[in-house]
């Protein structure tokens, strides 16, 4: 391997120690009002992308981009949690700190595979600012490798794919898999002409990589970078997904600062990718980005997304932490779409389920269901044929101030709406998801945590993830029906509390 690229500036264990001390300091004053109970988050500090999702030596591993020194983005390290069952998680020691010259300004995102020698092998991006200070002159990024025999302690191997052209300003986020005897890697590139592309490399030995082809180029010239690409098989198809920078909003779509989505098509090793569907967003909420998938040992394709707080104000930053994952989701094919459903094991966290049975609400009626829900797993079915109200749904995180987040079916739009306009804290605004009304029923599952809401529409045909920061006091849940010709018919409704995901709660 290229010698200068392994030049060490610092000792990893000393750097990790220093970073852990900073996390502990931030944790001492962490405010828990919105800190998640049933979503992965760092004990303190900022997190972004899920990294290195894998199953190794009997445990699931989820690493993540972490700033241990504050609740803003910066100083990228890799944090780490692990689990035996994908439900209960354990905090692990921080996995990687920047120590090499080539990663002076951060160990950026990447993926993990169990290598030919049985070690957990991580491919990630070593990042430096070209001007040494910030991204005004772009980045100098190279794909790096590290190995571990326990998933906890990593030995860095340095650069495996250097950046081939100094006019390339983004070159990052390797995702690796193996077919037959060959290893494949894809990562995102912003070309010298600033087009967003995904490049594919191959390797026989995991260390020496050869350029194979540009496997995907974004058709929109405004899209200048495809972050965190992923490529995986589902049945007889292949999915390419990416997090697009530069995509403009159109109608209900792509309304977030950056947006993550996918296309489905076919691919044979050694060939081109043939796209067969339109681009679809992974998630229709305000906060979803940089998802990564991996295959569980039972064959399921699972995805974790980062609930990206791109838009200011970001009130959790005042609380000593920032950012959480979505709940783990299983991904399956549903025609030209992906179905994303919280993994079935997630229901193991349900406690004290209350069944409200069928409910008929008069027009402009409301009913308080729960007085104070820190967390909730809500299942409800609306009879669309027998309901005439214009909007039917739930006010979540409803406090005495009137603050709430509305999750409802809107008959004018024919869509599910997640609306935060009554929130004191955080970014407001609404997002919507399309609804297939052919069955005459709408199924909603709503996962409520202390600072977030995830809405699963019709068994995962659509899904929405948004932060929702409740105001002070108890957090009620209220059923509402608004306007229209007549009543709302809810054919079933149940609400459970959700237990904590942490093996050892922080406090
Ligand atoms: C996506 C991203 C990646 C990069 C990482 C840095 O959110 O920008 O492209 O590797 O975050 O933290």
TrEMBL record:
Residues of the Glycosyl hydrolase family 32 C-terminal domain: 364-495
Pathway the protein contributes to: Glycan biosynthesis; sucrose metabolism
GO molecular function, one term: hydrolase activity
SUPFAM superfamilies, sorted: Arabinanase/levansucrase/invertase (SSF75005), Concanavalin A-like lectins/glucanases (SSF49899)
Principal subcellular localization: cytoplasm
Keyword list, A-Z: Carbohydrate metabolism, Cytoplasm, Glycosidase, Hydrolase
CDD domains linked to this entry: GH32_FFase (cd08996)
Catalytic activity line of the entry: Hydrolysis of terminal non-reducing beta-D-fructofuranoside residues in beta-D-fructofuranosides
Compartments it resides in: Cytoplasm
Record-annotated Glycosyl hydrolase family 32 N-terminal domain positions: 39-338
Enzyme Commission identifier(s): 3.2.1.26
A Pfam family per the record: Glyco_hydro_32N
Top EC class, one word: hydrolase
PANTHER family: BETA-FRUCTOSIDASE
Protein family membership: Belongs to the glycosyl hydrolase 32 family.
General function of this protein: Enables the bacterium to metabolize sucrose as a sole carbon source.
Name by which UniProt lists this protein: Sucrose-6-phosphate hydrolase
């Amino acid at each position: 391997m290229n010698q200068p690229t392994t030049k060490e500036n610092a000792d990893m264990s000393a750097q990790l120690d220093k970073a852990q001390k900073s996390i502990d300091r931030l944790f001492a004053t962490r405010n828990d009002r919105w800190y998640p109970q049933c979503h992965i988050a760092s004990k303190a500090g900022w997190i972004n992308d899920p990294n290195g999702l894998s199953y190794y030596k009997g445990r699931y591993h989820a690493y993540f981009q972490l700033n241990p020194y504050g609740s803003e983005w910066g100083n990228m390290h890799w944090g780490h949690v692990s689990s035996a069952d994908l439900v209960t998680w354990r905090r692990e020691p921080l996995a990687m700190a920047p120590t090499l010259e080539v990663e002076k300004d951060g160990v950026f995102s990447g993926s993990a595979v169990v290598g030919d020698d049985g070690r957990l092998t991580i491919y990630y991006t070593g990042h430096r600012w070209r001007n040494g200070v910030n991204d005004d002159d772009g980045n100098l990024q190279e794909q790096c490798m590290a190995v571990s025999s326990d998933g906890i302690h990593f030995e860095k191997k340095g650069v495996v794919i250097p950046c081939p052209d100094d006019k390339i300003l983004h070159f990052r986020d390797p995702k690796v898999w193996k077919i037959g005897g060959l290893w494949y890697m894809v990562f995102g590139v912003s070309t010298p002409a600033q087009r967003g592309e995904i490049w594919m490399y191959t390797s026989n030995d995991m260390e020496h990589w050869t350029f194979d082809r540009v496997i995907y180029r974004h058709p929109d010239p405004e899209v200048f970078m495809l972050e965190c690409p992923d490529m995986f098989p589902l049945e007889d198809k292949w999915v390419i997904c990416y997090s697009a920078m530069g995509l403009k909003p159109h109608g209900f779509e792509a309304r977030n600062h950056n947006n993550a989505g996918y296309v489905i098509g076919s691919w044979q090793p050694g060939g081109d990718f043939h796209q067969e569907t339109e681009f679809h967003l992974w998630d229709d909420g305000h906060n979803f980005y940089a998802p990564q998938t991996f295959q569980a040992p039972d064959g399921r394709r699972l995805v974790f997304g980062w609930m990206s707080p791109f838009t200011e104000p970001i009130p959790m930053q005042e609380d000593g932490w920032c950012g959480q994952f979505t709940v783990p989701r299983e991904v399956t094919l549903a025609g030209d779409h992906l179905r994303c459903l919280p993994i079935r094991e997630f229901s193991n966290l349900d406690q004290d389920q209350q069944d409200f049975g069928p409910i008929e609400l008069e027009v402009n009626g409301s009913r308080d269901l729960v007085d104070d829900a820190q967390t909730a797993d809500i299942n409800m079915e609306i009879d669309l044929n027998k309901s005439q109200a214009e909007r039917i749904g739930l006010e979540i995180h409803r406090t005495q101030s009137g603050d709430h987040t509305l999750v409802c079916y809107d008959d004018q739009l024919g869509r599910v709406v997640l609306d935060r306009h009554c929130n004191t804290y955080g970014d407001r605004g609404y997002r919507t998801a399309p609804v297939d009304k052919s069955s005459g029923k709408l199924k909603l599952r709503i996962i409520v945590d202390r600072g977030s809401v995830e809405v699963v529409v019709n068994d995962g045909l659509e899904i929405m993830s948004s932060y929702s920061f409740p105001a002070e006091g108890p957090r009620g849940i209220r059923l509402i029906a608004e306007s229209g010709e007549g009543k709302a018919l809810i054919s079933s409704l149940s609400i459970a509390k959700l237990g904590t995901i942490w093996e050892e709660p922080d406090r």
